[in-house]
Specification:
The chain has helices at residues 3-19, 23-34, 37-59, 62-67, 70-96, 99-108, 113-125, 128-141, 148-172, 176-184, 186-206. The N and C termini lie far apart (40 Å). It has one domain. The protein is built from eleven helices and no strands. It is mostly helical. The radius of gyration is 18 Å and the shape is globular.
């Protein structure tokens, strides 16, 4: 059995999934340009915790069982939609305020490390696509009766690939020249991100 090929496939698919634009990227980006590298990394850690949760559920076949329970999937979808609307609305309202009000809110934000961690975790965990995504990866790529060490290696691979990606995003967006550019366009970026998150949430809620 080609164990290396299996892990390489999981790594490639995981990278493509993590790098695709979506709510997770918007959450990390919003903290990077509004707070600090610390907040962006904490939001990334929240996403990684969610990745670990979903990967473990999928690897142990719990994800397959959950997919067969429509009410669980719908509950996740509704929770995710409401959270995206709330977070997007918060960004949008902040962007529409006067500059002084936005700056006051930004000055308070760096102290909310736990909120950043929770935002990353909640955004990823309440995305019903994550359930189907990780369950599909392990159902298609992993052979039946896989040894425990291979399951552990597959989960670890998914975590390491995600960690490398999100750490890179958080660090890149907080490099002084790039951060300076984003700060000049902060209100516009917040407005766009907030609007997109609200639209994603509404679309998710209306397609239940």
């Amino acid at each position: 059995m080609d164990y290396f090929g299996i892990l390489l496939t999981i790594a490639v698919v995981q990278f493509l999934g993590a790098a695709s634009p979506g709510p997770n990227f918007m959450i990390v980006t919003s903290y990077a340009i509004n707070g600090s590298r610390r907040l962006a990394l904490l939001a990334s850690c929240g996403i990684l915790l969610a990745t670990l949760t979903w990967a473990l559920l999928a690897a142990t076949s719990v994800g397959v069982v959950m997919l067969r329970m429509p009410y669980v999937y719908q509950a996740l979808q509704l929770a995710g939609a409401l959270y995206l609307i709330w977070f997007g609305g918060k960004l949008l309202i902040g962007a529409l305020r006067e500059n002084s009000a936005v700056k006051q809110g930004a000055n308070k934000q760096p102290h909310s490390g736990m909120l950043a961690l929770r935002a990353g975790y909640t955004t990823s965990m309440t995305n019903p696509k994550s359930l189907a995504y990780y369950t599909s990866i392990f159902a298609v790529v992993m052979p039946k009766d896989s040894p425990d060490w291979l399951l552990a290696a597959a989960v670890s691979t998914a975590i390491l690939v995600s960690a490398a990606w999100w750490a890179s995003v958080a660090i890149f967006l907080t490099v002084p020249p790039i951060r300076s550019y984003y700060e000049r366009a902060q209100r516009g970026i917040n407005a766009v991100m907030g609007g997109l998150l609200v639209c994603l949430g509404l679309r998710l809620a209306l397609t239940r």
